[in-house]
Specification:
With about 260 residues, the chain is an alpha/beta fold. The chain folds into 2 domains: about 5-90 and about 170-255, 3-Layer(aba) Sandwich (Rossmann fold); about 95-170, 2-Layer Sandwich (Alpha-Beta Plaits), CATH 3.30.70.1020. It is built from 8 helices and 11 strands. It has helices at about 5-10, 40-50, 65-70, 95-115, 140-150, 175-185, 200-205, 230-255, and strands at about 15-20, 55-60, 75-80, 85, 120-125, 125-130, 155-160, 165-170, 190-195, 210-215, 225-230. The protein has a 7-stranded mixed sheet with strand order 4-3-2-1-9-10-11. A 4-stranded antiparallel sheet has the order 5-6-8-7, with helices on one face. Strand 7 and strand 8 (about 165-170) form a beta hairpin. Helix 2 (about 40-50) runs parallel beside helix 8. The longest helix has 23 residues, at about 230-255. The radius of gyration is 19 Å and the shape is elongated. The chain starts with a helix and ends with a helix.
Length: about 260
């Protein structure tokens, strides 16, 4: 049986984990001008101030990029980038051999986007990402996808997402990060919200956890336990969770 928001809010120690793009923020052709849902933003801030409540934004963006679009100031929210490879509390380093491998794939990807208006390669510490959301010609998108099939991705983890293909030297996924973090912090209740294929790794890790609620945003096959239609619906869900958590903690402090 799937946990309700009310049941989850009444757990002793709550872990709230959300993706960013497509979950609490919409999409844009300008990656640094995305519309953030204000209900979600307020709920995340409110949840971070609740007792025994741990809030994490687990994004595919690299940390530097995430910090550019999501300034949470004084609020106690952990940001984790690159699908878990960049955790500010547990930094990883990259070897010279891995750096060289990333530079080789970068060169291959630059050849694919050369001359195609709107296509570009994003550099992340552990990844190179082929972007084509700005490409308006469907034939050019097909050309990019076909060319990508033929490049040498040996030794890299390749993930196809929404208008991107990501090549990673790190084997960390949102699933492996979640598993390690949960083992380390031992929450009694977990919610994880995401919209993309990369979030499925997290849904799969939690699929058999009775104290976890996983939420898929939008259409498509998923291992998540429940689903909402849109970014706006995520805002309503998080708003309800924040309210119910506040009510629970207030009653607990009064001994009710």
């Amino acid at each position: 049986m799937t946990l309700s928001i009310e049941e989850l809010a009444q757990t002793r120690t709550l872990l709230v984990v959300s993706d960013f793009d497509g979950t609490i923020a919409g999409f844009s052709k300008d990656a640094y001008q995305v519309p953030i849902n204000q209900k979600s933003l307020k709920a995340i801030k409110d949840l971070s101030q609740q007792a025994n409540t741990d809030v994490v934004i687990l994004s595919g963006r690299h940390l530097e990029g995430l910090n550019k679009v999501l300034d949470l100031g004084k609020y106690r929210v952990t940001k984790v980038g690159s699908h878990g490879s960049e955790d500010s509390s547990r930094p990883l380093s990259i070897s010279p051999a891995d750096q060289e491998r990333l530079e080789r794939i970068h060169a291959d990807l630059e050849q694919i986007v050369d001359g195609i208006d709107g296509a570009f390669v994003e550099v992340k510490p552990f990844h190179r990402v082929l972007h084509f959301i700005r490409v308006s010609d469907p034939a050019k998108v097909t050309q990019i996808l076909e060319a990508a099939k033929h490049i040498d991705s040996t030794g890299l983890k390749v993930t196809e997402g929404k208008n991107i293909i990501e090549y990673s030297i790190s084997k960390t996924t949102k699933g492996t990060w979640l598993r390690e973090y949960i083992q380390r912090t031992q929450p009694t209740g977990v919610i994880f919200i995401g919209d993309d294929t990369t979030d499925e790794h997290g849904f799969e890790v939690l699929v058999d956890a009775p104290t976890a609620l996983t939420v898929k945003v939008g259409a498509g096959d998923t291992a998540a336990k429940t689903r909402v239609d849109s970014v706006d619906d995520v805002g309503l869900l998080l708003e309800k969770l924040a309210y119910e958590r506040m009510q629970y903690n207030e009653k607990k402090s009064l001994g009710v």
